[in-house]
Amino acid sequence: MRILHVSDCYLPRLGGIEVQVADLVRAQADAGHEVEVATATPGERLPGVHRVVAPMPFSLPVHPRGVRHLLRLMAARRPDVVHVHTGAVSPFAWMGVRAAVRARLPVVVTVHSMWDPVTRVVYRGLDAVWGWSRWRLVSTTVSNAAARPIRSVVGGRVPVNVVSNGLDVTAWRPSGDPPPRRDEGVHIVAVGRLAPRKQPVRLLKILLEARRRVPRDVPMRATLVGDGPARGAMERFLRAHGMGGWVSLPGRYSRDQIRRLLASADVFVAPAPRESFGIAALEARAAGVPVVARAQSGVADFVRPGKEGLLGRSFDELAGSVARLARDRELRESIALHNRETELTRCAWPSVLEGFDRCYALARARA
User: Fold this and answer.
1) Using CA atoms, how far apart are residues 83 and 15, in angstroms rounded to an integer?
2) pLDDT averaged over consecutive 10-residue blocks of the chain (367 residues)?
3) Cα–Cα distance measured from residue 38 to residue 219, given in angstroms and rounded to the nearest whole number
4) Across the strands, what pairs with 139?
5) Lower CB density within 10 Å: C or N end of the chain?
6) What is the domain-level CATH number for residue 319?
7) Cis amide leading into 12 (omega within 30)
8) Cα dihedral 127/131/134/135 (nearest 10)
9) Cα–Cα distance between 322 and 188 in angstroms, integer?
10) How far apart are the first and last CA of the chain?
11) Measured between alpha carbons, how far is 273 from 276 in angstroms, rounded to an integer?
């Protein structure tokens, strides 16, 4: 099958959508599909990557004549399906949708983010103007939590399927028995971009409250991996509350560094309330680490309370879950053993590719 992916952002930019789309392209190519990418992100020439780039303020990934360029590309390449990847606001990606509809090509739109109330109002307004929900699209999203607000906007006019993000599970699963651990206390880990919408300062408040609830004879330390605009606010919070001795901000890590870090982790925390999926939490769960996350987020699709980790709906419940795992070694170890021994088949690439193949078939039937 000839597949054309359209995404505002792509490599060399690094982010959740960019990395996931690149991994999907690689997995589909390995499965025998002819796969190409159209993106508004500048960068080096890569095989099968078409960069539709214009000089824009702040290097915004959009092109003022994107529909025209994409129509020419689709006419030349004649894909069997156009797979568009959007976040909350993705102007170039939606140009890809419009171009594919005008070219009478089957279209699958994957929404990688959670639509908040403002976003839902925007898409209802755009539907009133453009009627996009009647373009015979097929939609997918990455979790049940992310699917609910989309379904509230489109009603039954657009099929909304849940297809998990993909992960090379074997690359994250620990091999053999767990390595011997040095007695350095309970090690809490978080991985993600330090952006305000991820609420990293709130994560520090959760850790501080959890530390207050754990007896002082139980040592705790935390490693928060990532970088971003909220780093300065986090550093100020650490200084103000004297947390520098047990909380570290080492910056961005490579995948290999994250794997090594998870091998020493006792708890992984993903506190963002509007996390549509949580690929870092999935990696931790695959590595055998108990996960603490929001019950309202997409992480709840692969973390069940008491099985793969603990979930909370509020600040108090999240802090209590971290404190409970820090205090209860038996619970930590039983969850870790379950995570190490239980397969993550729904998030493995064969299952993800099968899910998208079903959506492509549905899109071709609807087109």
Assistant:
1) 19
2) 97 88 97 98 94 88 94 98 94 97 98 95 94 96 97 95 95 72 83 91 98 96 96 98 97 94 97 92 97 96 96 97 97 96 91 98 95
3) 50
4) 109, 160
5) N
6) 3.40.50.2000
7) yes
8) -110
9) 9
10) 16
11) 9
Query: Which pLDDT does position 59 carry in this prediction?
Result: 78
Q: What angle do CA 87, 138, 91 make, to 5 degrees?
A: 30
50 neighbors 39 (Cβ within 8 angstroms): yes
Q: Are strands 160-162 and 138-141 parallel, antiparallel or unpaired?
A: parallel
- pLDDT, residue 197, reads 85
pLDDT at site 182: 58
Same domain, yes or no, for 244 and 331? yes
193, 169 Cβ separation under 8 angstroms:
no
Closest C-alpha to 283, from 166, 203, 142 = 166
Report the candidate in 82, 101, 2 with the shortest Cα–Cα distance to residue 38: 82
Does one domain contain both 23 and 152?
yes
Amino acid letter, residue 264: S
